[in-house]
Amino acid sequence: MGRSSYSFEEGLNKGAWTTSEDNLLINYINKHGEGKWTTIPYKAGLKRSGKSCRLRWLNYLRPNVKRGNFSEEEDDLIIRLHKLLGNRWSLIAGRLPGRTDNEIKNYWNTTLAKKSRFLHLSQMHQPSNIQRPPASDHLLPSSSTYPSPQATNNKTLNRPMAIRCDKVAFPVGESSAVAASVMPETIKAGTIIEEELVQVKENMVMNCSFEDGNVAVSDQAVMEFNGLPDFESWMLNDVDGDCLPDAENVEWLTSLFDMEGELQKQL
DNA sequence: AAGTGAGTCAACCGCACGAGA
DNA sequence: TTCTCGTGCGGTTGACTCACT
Q: Is A196 within 8 Å of A207 (Cβ atoms)?
């Protein structure tokens, strides 16, 4: 990444963009392409920061940005992805062509969080021996607010959060050390301050938080188990509201993260 | 008609990360 | 190896709209 000695911080405009500013930016990028955001304002004749130009282009001016209402399918996908990834809006946006992370984030905060909560409450009132935390609880800082594993038995499944935790499934009888050995290196670097064991059929799911705050997220867990026999047991404990692993969910999740190492590069 | 509160969304802010110097 | 800076990300803010009283 190159560096520029150029500085252009004085007298910058802030706030809403005008049509003429939009046109200047569009014309410049159409001619010269994206990138070099710090120099674009100067070269395009804009009194804006590079950050502001980048944001305006990516979230609004780009030709393939999809405007308008979200479809039912998009709603469903966002809710599923949010359960899986938490507030990782850029990753979620990457699965929705034409939608930006900012747009999805706004949409979630204003609309889908409520919808997701409503769906959860609907499930709560159906006869079931499965306990789940509400999807909106992804915003909570720790999984410690959920029922302790001591209260868990074979008939009750405590569903760990899909964010700010790591889940590692391993056969009953294996020690925590064995579980730790299959954790990603980045996770092992942290010190575990919470550890919960939850029995799911013949496997255990470990739910950990780390003191350095550099906690794992569930997509790492997915990568960990993608293709392994325990993957289905992990599926038991997460995904989209179905308690039992079904072929469609396994296929969906597998395809979602089997992106030729794309995700792995980001992690 | 005016006031008010809730909802929406574009834009800003601060931070982390990575790469070049 | 360290420093500096560009880039990208998630959280937050504030202006605007609209429904309701």
A: yes
Strands A157-158 and A130-131: parallel
| Footprint on protein of nucleic strand B, Cβ below 7 A | A 1-3, 13-17, 48-49, 51-52, 55-56, 59-60, 102-103, 105-107, 109-111, 214
**Number of structural domains, chain A?**
3
**A78 and A50 assigned to the same domain:** no
Give pLDDT, residue A124: 54
Mean per-residue pLDDT for A45-72? 87
Chain C: nucleotides under 7 Å from a protein CB?
A: 4-12, 15-16
What is the residue-averaged pLDDT of chain A? Answer: 56
Residue nearest to nucleotide B18 (CA to C1'): A1
Domain that holds residue A108: 72-121
Claim to verify: residue A226 and residue A113 sit in the same structural domain: no
DSSP state letter for A108: I
pLDDT classification of A73: cutoffs 50, 70, 90: confident
Q: Are A123 and A243 within 8 A, CB to CB?
A: no
